[in-house]
Amino acid sequence: MDDPERFHLTLTAVGRPVAHGWWSDETIARGRFVSWVGKYGAIPGSRLTLVDEAEARTLAVWPDQE
Q1: I need a surface site. Which of 9, 27, 51, 64 has the fewest CB within 10 A?
Q2: What is the residue extent of each domain of the chain?
Q3: φ, ψ at 65 (rounded to 5°)
Q4: Alpha carbon of residue 9 to chain centroid
Q5: How many angstroms separate the CA atoms of 60 and 48, rounded?
């Protein structure tokens, strides 16, 4: 059975959590990541992070880590 909270997307602004989303499908989660960048990326100090909770690894970060 798929874990409905495997892929976790977090939006923070100036270091504070603003929104979260969880999906069982990686393709859908990555699509939401791209969508959220377009929707929330202009918020000052915003940062988006997509994590695979089952494998404890970060899949995507916006803006890119430097």
Answers
A1: 64
A2: 7-50
A3: -70, 140
A4: 3
A5: 8
